[in-house]
Amino acid sequence: MIKKQLFTPGPTEVPPETLAATARPVLHHRKEGFKKLYFSAVSNLGKIFRSSGEIFILATSGTGAMETAVCNFTSSGDKALVVVSGKFGKRWKELLNTFGVEAEVLNYEWGRPADPGDIKEKLEGRKDIKAVFTTLVETSTGTLHPIEKIASVVKESPAALIVDAVSGLGCDVIETDKWEIDVVVSGSQKALMTPPGLGFICVNKKAKELYEKNERKNYYWDLKKASGRHKNNQVPYTPAVNLIAGLEQSVKMINKEGIENVWERHKMFSEATRAAMDKLGIEVFSESPARGLTAIKIPEGKSFIIKELKEKFGIVVAGGQAHLKGKIARLGHMGYADKSDILKLITALGVIVEDFSGLSAALKAANEIFKKYAK
Amino acid sequence: MIKKQLFTPGPTEVPPETLAATARPVLHHRKEGFKKLYFSAVSNLGKIFRSSGEIFILATSGTGAMETAVCNFTSSGDKALVVVSGKFGKRWKELLNTFGVEAEVLNYEWGRPADPGDIKEKLEGRKDIKAVFTTLVETSTGTLHPIEKIASVVKESPAALIVDAVSGLGCDVIETDKWEIDVVVSGSQKALMTPPGLGFICVNKKAKELYEKNERKNYYWDLKKASGRHKNNQVPYTPAVNLIAGLEQSVKMINKEGIENVWERHKMFSEATRAAMDKLGIEVFSESPARGLTAIKIPEGKSFIIKELKEKFGIVVAGGQAHLKGKIARLGHMGYADKSDILKLITALGVIVEDFSGLSAALKAANEIFKKYAK
What we know:
The first copy, chain A, contains 13 helices and 14 strands. The first copy, chain A, is an alpha/beta fold.
């Protein structure tokens, strides 16, 4: 017997309560039972997005939610600024290109966070840039971008700020309303502890007119149409009812713990993991590590760690993408995870590299972090 | 206690085995376990589509699968012919308009099937029509279109044939390869006995070059990208893993029964329901009734039937859409349904209208049909 456990940065482990909720009998999507469920899911999501704006739940993946943002907040021929420092920033750029938007790219080395000063400079005196696209957490490198500061510079320009928080929402701090972010997109399968298949788009109250006035014609992604239905706790096309039932369970659990406590818990996981890696002599890859995952450099001659974690201990972590393939491992600790899980991950890694004195120090270091947070 | 049961034409009841499969721990979508599951789901779907072509599974609703077809098989400025005889034919038209395709409409009164002769006439000498869009079953009226005959006339022209079989696949006969249909789209939540959230697109071998050569730029819906991943039992973006686990269970059950037997079972349900309605003095709405649902005219003064079926007996049926609201009821008998379910539905309806002599005759008539099929 090997018990498999996902330590991947999406999809992630899902609580049994949520899996059970997805297995409830199907509700018809035009009846009262579904409307109540939808209202509860949306209300609870609002507390996680920290927004009193509109939140749409779509039957799609995170990429579909990103496409929804591009299609509803830009028109063909528009100009946009896009931060690229990994695979998901690149995805914004590819989407913008696909839909005829001229994308000016601010490139950063993979693993480095965006510099709000660069964005400020790029936007200076520019009235022609319709929107700035960035990610909250670049999952491909485990890097957190300074969204609060980025928001404060974008606010000074006429451009809208559109943030991909597929990775990050529910573990790293994001304050959609307070920071005045116009649009935040996300998905079900990461810190929100729900199986994949749902995409979310949160539109700040002030940003509603941006899609209402936008000229591109959309159908499946059309937020104007969705907005009309939304008021009545409905969606335009058959929703993924059972996934929404699961989501509703998970977001209630998150809000029961309290989103600020959830953020703190992830901060503790992230600090404990990094402290332990340090003692194991393993370098962290990112210059600005996110709370939900830790990307580590695979030590020289230790390319077997990803495979052995899985085969020996059932621990599934992710490798690097694109040019980082074989060079980094990404350890997810987001969503349905507790301190024992962090210890399990550290221990397995220490055992696999057979560094038992390092492991002893690593576990002590992790425990020090736990104690700090317990105070 | 009231046990609710969906007799709606989508979403439909899902077998407990399938609900349980959706509640299994989440698989990571880039690992072997998922690839095996995906391969099994796709192979089993092939036997239901009756096609050896490519089958794509998308995280979306049926409408998203329709949008995928429009986006991959037409370019802006193309011309298309579209059959409209209800809400879903109209949806093709709206999608075509949204994506810049000039749609010539063949309108039929709601409830009437398309006439292949009209399509033949429309296509005669026309080399400029890129595709013909139609539905297998118009769910809004419970009407089956004669797709085999339509395919035989479209075949004589350069136009491709694109069929919405969201309603119909897995209950009404469709022979994608044999009838030479280029593209068939469908969804998880009807006769395929799976919760909503998955869209399918089946591309006949001969039609592959149609999307490969097509010029429109797509991202989330891009079949060129999906096709490359597909060979390796992968999809481009995070798939709805747990829904695919449920689907795999349901399509295996369908193929265990045998798709031809499943078609026969639905034919029996449909005939038995119609025979019973006749004895209850209730008229069938459609001139060409589908096998998976029966649309009935709501008898004069009996507008309470939909509400009472639900409140008294937990039986959820659908009302009419658009101008048929209040005029028809749509009784779904597709997917996870057996003879007892049909008797339950007939009985409840007879009891609600308090026509007990009619009910006696109705049940006898239904049983005669069952006996005919048992031979």
